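Field guide to reading this record: the first block holds the primary sequence, the second block holds the structure written as discrete tokens, and the final block holds curator observations. Each block starts with its own label. This record concerns Vacuolar protein sorting-associated protein 17, catalogued under organism Monilinia vaccinii-corymbosi.

BLOCK 1 — SEQUENCE
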Amino acid sequence: MDYSASINDPDNPAGASPWGSSPTGSPQHPRTNTFPSRDIVSPTPYHPIQPGSASYSQEDIMGAGAFHRPDSSAGASVSDAESRRPDTAESTQSDVEVQHGFGQQYQRQTSSQQQYPVGQHKPEPQRYHHSIARQAHHALATHYKLQAKITGLERTGRKDPILRFDVHTNLPKFRTTQFRDVRRTHSEFIKLADHLISSNPEAIVPAVPPALTSAGAGTDEDEARVKASLQRWLNYVCSNDVLMRDDEMVLFVESDFGYSPMLKRKQPATGVRRRVIKQFAPPPDDTPELQDARPVVKLFYLGSMDAGHKVDKLVKARRGLGLAESDFGVKLGAMNVQEPHQGLANAYRKLGKTIQSTGDFHAAQGTAEATTIGDPFQYHSQDAFIVKETLTNRHILLRELLQAQQLTRSKLNAADRLKASSSVRREKVDEAISALDEARSNEIYLQNKTQRVTANLLLEQRRWTARTAADLRLSLREYVIREIEAERRTLATLESIRPDIRAIDSSGGLSRLGRESHPAARRASLAASQGPKGDSWSGVPRRPDGLNRSISGSFMSTPEGANGEEDGVGHDRSLSGSTGGLPGLKEEDDEDRVDARNAASRLANVL
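BLOCK 2 — STRUCTURE
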């Protein structure tokens, strides 16, 4: 047999055999027969090597494929070995003689190899041993990965959607490294998550995102959010070292027609027993971080659930406001029919349409609030509940460990009493020993499991805290941006009706709001506050040195060369930060008035 073919030494690309230390010819000459010749000695040691010979390990001697016979060899294959007749005494004796002959021949070869000095040849077996060690280290350092990428979402109405995704992995449990167009329903994702929660008490499995968001089924935003949330869930599960090695992950990916868990495991305690256990004080815990984590997680679970309910009430109120405004706009627009004044009739018609549009904007704003902040609160509430129950399972495991320790002590005391007894029967001794061994083995198993669960949950809890905080920050950021956009849209819509309101009559219409007519410099500008450069809030372009001025407590007077509106606003700002009158500063009679415009201007300056 040619053993050099099974060796691939990176240090020697020429392919020299590790058994080439002997100066005898290498068994690599061409053969005309597939049977090994009689003078070729197999390197497999049938007898122990003498102490004076070279020290080979069992892996060095056998090599990578030492026991893999060629298909054309004379030895029987696996199927032949199963179908051959049983060995008789004669055949067994002949096999022993043959093996003894091979052993003597191998000993003669090893003794002939000892005749050569060690310095005449390179110690290749030692080098081969180092290469095997490097290969073993490379195998241990292999980074296993499991990656899944969602490629599509198929939905028919409000039915269970189907998600299509591709999988790439180098885990040895899978049949191949790539799986294309795997199709799983959302309910199958929930089944997988339930199994992972039950079978992996040392891991925190995130909650499966809902199949439908508040954006509405069939919308582009709903599809994008569902795909993004499920992609994040897959990324976390596939990157977790514990979850990615679960056997159900293989079935979830490789199943051709649907998926159902092969092993259905339940929680360690369910129903009434679980509720009763929760009523007791938690067991003694030597990990303060996990001991303090469960109350915090429970408070977060209750707080996020309450916040989600309040957001739902806010959304309902916002949508009700939108409907009321739309109805009010329709009725207000219908008043132009019976209004004899042309300017006022035109204002009624324009104002009705504007209020109706504002109602539609408020309804859309309610939907945006439910999507950006309501759904995240509900999801994180479900996720925190899973974390809380996972930490509860650890408490149950600690209780089981304490009970196992008490049982072991009781069995040990029973064995001691039996040992001190004067009359001992053999049956009782055997029973006590077996009970003690069983109790000790159960205690050791629970001890190891508790240590593993505690060590892993410590890391998982930190990851969950960081992940939840980051998700909530992103949700709040998106919520604030959507709220600002909605308010800017509403403000721009209301400002669009301002010229029509002021054009009701020649005196300015409703711009004076029942007060006396002020100078032209004090009248509100018709410039829109919403422009391509952002909010100006007062309808006046920003000052170029606005950033250099102090926000509060500024005593700098504004230049008189600017327009009247800017002068008034700047002077109001100076008065807002002053504690008394300043010498040389002229105050107007109507300077301290506070209306909606000045209040908005002052608030914008503070912010």
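BLOCK 3 — OBSERVATIONS
The chain has four domains: 3-139, 146-266, 293-493, 535-606.
The chain has a mean pLDDT of 73.
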